[in-house]
User: Fold these one by one.
Assistant:
Number 1:
Amino acid sequence: EEEIEFTVGEQFFIRYPDDGQVFPGGGNFYFQWDTPGFRQGVKVEFRLIIAAIIPEYADSPEEAIELGYNPVFYFNSEWSELPIGEWPYVELGYSVQLNFWYFTFISDTGMEQFKCGFDYAWRMDAREVIDGFESGSGDQGLWGWPEPVHSVVRKFTWGENPSGLVSPVGDDVLPLFMWDNIGCAEDGFDIQISPIEDEDFADSWGADFISTPFQYPADAPGLIPGKSYKWRVRVHSLTGNTNWSQIETFTIQDIELIEPQIGKIVESVRPYFNIDSPANISHYELLIGDENDEYVEQVEIYNREVEITALPWQYPSQNMEKGLFPNMVYYWKLLMFDGSGNILGDIEDYEVMGNFRVMPIILTEPSHGGTNIPLDQKFIWDGPISVPSYELWLSDDQDPEVENHKVFINITGSKSLD
């Protein structure tokens, strides 16, 4: 007895989308495959299966197809008619390439549109259909029964991952983020921004339904000068399963002291305070301690009494209890706040900006140790600008430190007394 082995249907093959095909902006495309190439008149049915590839549900395109469900997208035509003309397809005696367009298929079958930004697996199944034939097990043909013939599984991407990310230059605490738009991202994008040391974005700030370019909002937690951050974006989806872009980084410009410089002798009891800082810091608050408060912890001189919204800022006119005094050393800090009134970072992280000394009072006339002083001697001195008034104390040679003055005179608006 002689056996003959032969293979049928070997030309059944899917062609397009090809494996790894990417449709960057989504849009229309076609599905194409080769028929088995049977003799003329053989009828063949086809079944299309498409599944989004969700890593939490499937480790491979094949597993995504076999799973039978996922929360993003799963479609099985269940041997229903495909838009290829006559149905079932009737072979011509040779293999033919069949195809239909994606948008046409949606219109004809009611299939949902793909979700932008996902990878998809697809497979075509086929089986012969013989009119009037049914086996005892219910098979309606020979080829593709009882299990249909499966094509290979291929993967394509509909709507690529966001690319072209442009990081902020860092001169603004409300920076602008930009990336390439994607045509099918009808619901916009998601963004995550996190300190650079946060490896898995666990402490990130995020926003969704945004578009490019995107400006960091004023009511979001403030970005801190001198700190580095990383960010990424993805196409928005209700399930949140789209792939994130590559990670980019940026650094917010650190503050730079302008005045008063460290150790400077200032010529006014109302000095100016100024720094070079990134734009859009909502306001500043000043703390000043005296020479015994090097770390500005007691803050007995000036403690955040006003919100400073513009720099440079001049120390205000003060009374005798709270003013800055000649020849005194002071230490200072400047706190920064975001648009919601929250401090940028932690107050413990703020370092002392520096120290300064107010110009001392210099007595010029009469000179120290002078003799033959006339009874109508004019008293002249030099001192810092903006001192509202002086007190002239006089005593005799028995009180060289003028601790128990015999004469007390208040002088306003002058640096001399006739």
Note: The chain has two helices and 29 strands.
Number 2:
Amino acid sequence: MKTRLFLFLAAGMAALNSCTVTSTLYPLSSRPDQCIIKNEFSGIWYFKDDSSQLYSIDTLAKNSLHEYQILCLDMDTTDTMADSVYFRARLVQLHDSLYLDTYFELGKNDKNNMDLELLTVTRHFIFRLHFISADTILFQEPDPVGVINLIDKKKIHLTYAGLGEDNFLILDKSEQLQKAIIEAEKYKWLYKNTRLLIRVK
């Protein structure tokens, strides 16, 4: 249970106003021409409203999809060593918006303390980013309840499965995901959960 909670915290989901979690089975993109590298994204970051987690971000060498590795460190622990979780991430450019697609990096994490769900299904968490300056990023999380409501009302065309109470997995492949995300841009309220990432200097 601790691992699942920390996974969500590490993915930047601590700002949720509800306990609902929405993720995707497929990546937002596997096309190298849509995945970009921004040098200013590399470094060590923390959320302005919660400095108990640090995020060390670096590019992966010789990676055709221009992926990043994110090491999430939980500094708020009673252990002598900080808890850590590794993620892979891609920056995906869709029209004028930039999205961060993160997923759990199984090979780099301790499997003994992982929930079975994390070991059997690769789940992608997608956020929108806006680089305000070299040291500040606006981190926007789609409202998970709002996403499910839009799907149920057929405002965006996606399918999902329930993984448990308030836990949903979107099943569509990358192309359909992109269409839905672009369509959802007109619902400005969908990205009401915003936080600021601040670079550690």
Note: Residues 1-18 have pLDDT under 50 and may be disordered.
Number 3:
Amino acid sequence: MWQLLKRLFEIAARQSASRACVALVLLAAVASPLAGCGGGGKGSDSAAEAREEAGGEGEEASEEAARAKQKANEAVAIKREEAELAAKRKKLEATIAKQASEKHTAKKTHTHEKSSKHAKTHHSKSSKPKKGSSSKETPAEEAARKQFAKEEAQEAAAFKRRAKQESGG
């Protein structure tokens, strides 16, 4: 059948414009039943095409709704993760501040006790600059800061993985 259509098209190309039009009309008449793929032939072709178009539009609408729902879910997940990060950050900062204030008050109490017991000895020592006071950060604070940075990096990596997984998967 396709060979016949090919021949008709070649003949139409060689002939004059009016004969080419006639050949193309014949070609269209022969090709239209073939395009329906033998679906019954009693007008069901046009009904089937209408259903396919309507189904296609319905599929597009459902896909659009699914995409919108996925974007909304991603936005909710991002907000939730940001809230979790903020809560962890506040908790860690509060812990660091608490540790710093406890150490500060402990040092004051300890210094006060020494000065009341050994006033002369303590004053002579306090006039010398301390070697350990050059760093502004205690080892505990430094460890807490490093731990905080590590957790932040892990959470950022997890966030990126989730975003990539939700957008790609």
Note: The helical segments are 2-14, 17-35, 44-117, 119-126, 139-168.
Number 4:
Amino acid sequence: MGTNAIAVLSGCRQDRSGTWFLPTGPNDPRLPEPILTPEEERQTAALRAQIEAQLSLSDFAATLPSWMPEQLDRLMGQPPFVKRPVTGWRDPSVMVGNLPSQYAPFLDAFLQDPNRLALRNYARWWFDRRAAAAPLAACDNLNPIACQAVQTQLGIGARPWPWDLTDPFTLVEYLDWALANGQVATQPTPVPTTPPSSSGDTGSSLMSVLTIHVVDASGVPLGGACVEVEVPVGTSTVCDNEQWDGSATAGLIEIRGYPGTYKVRENRPPSGYAVVEDVRSVEVTAAGAAIILVHEAGPRGTEGPAAKPNSSIPSPSQTTGIAGATYTSPQFGYVVTWQSPWEPTTVTSDPEAGDYLRLGTGDVAMEYHAFFTDQPLKQALEAFVAERARTHPGVTPQYQAPGGGLNADSPALWHFTYTRADGVVMGEATIAFSVGSGRGVLMRTVIRPEDDASPRALFYAVSLVLDPVDATAAAQ
């Protein structure tokens, strides 16, 4: 393992003689040179102030379930708190257990607030730096359980704990990295020319606006689209006139963030239109940027507004797996069948993203998503739910252990609620099933208004067969 990996994973540094030590802070005299010069401190002062203002531990604690703060305190042990090599502020005598996976969705949701973008960038840097330093080769001679123990102790693949982000030494190292990698505006940046939205405006001169115009072939705005936006800190989905859209105008999506390269892909088209397939890469400057997503005629040759509700689904010739009221997963082979009032609303198949089917009856929806993964089923489920929580800010996922009923054949069930833009409170439950042979997991998500009992008969009108070949053989 190289010295940089040792430094990242242990928290230790070398003095001028090459001796390793644990710094007491960014101004430890044993450091060969200051991490930041006085001029660099001046240049990064605004970014530092942003991060410190966005990292409100009381605000974060308010988003956690009542039992979690006590468990986080337990990890730090008894005062006086001591920073140690490798484990940092965490007491190594206290078992971590499942807390990292339970904690991750809540941190992700907290960081997804657009007013915490600077903090989100900082947390992503912390995560990526440890992942890049991971001694994966060290696991070659270990069994999987031992390897997982090593990764857990080193915090590889886990989110930063609150004390990791408040550590003064780590913060200064991030500021040094951000300055060296062009992530700091060293001169005052002009306010974007696009008028800021009151819902997303942070008042920061470092923020910019990406404007996405969604129109038909004649230039008429089309409402209801969703886009997936990839930035260096991660990927988010923003839907027209929903929480992260800074514009209240249908067909106009405004996304606020730092200047940089954005990749935009439409993942839900306006009703009656086909998805704009190409990925747009756009350089967002301090003055903002804009792109236009033009939608031609509907995919079945019908002009969009007159098309059927499910006309966004490509034809069976495009290997989507739809044939009548039956869907066969192109990559995994499981089968979903349905009866009225269910209709397919979205179906995709991609070697990277897996197979996805969404059925709807109006307000009620069911989703099936299978993808290739090397993770254990429960871990994959937790990662999947964390992503859904990230795209539905403000939710509080609740975990249920395996048991009867909905999750009888699944390792766990997650449920949470969130409020749509129209004020309707939605409830969501997600479970997972193996699709066998290490090929991945199948996520089944039920989404409905929280005050809607959704009679069981409605869900009985949809059936799932994970392995139709085995089912046929068993019937014979």
Note: The chain is about 25% helix and 25% strand.
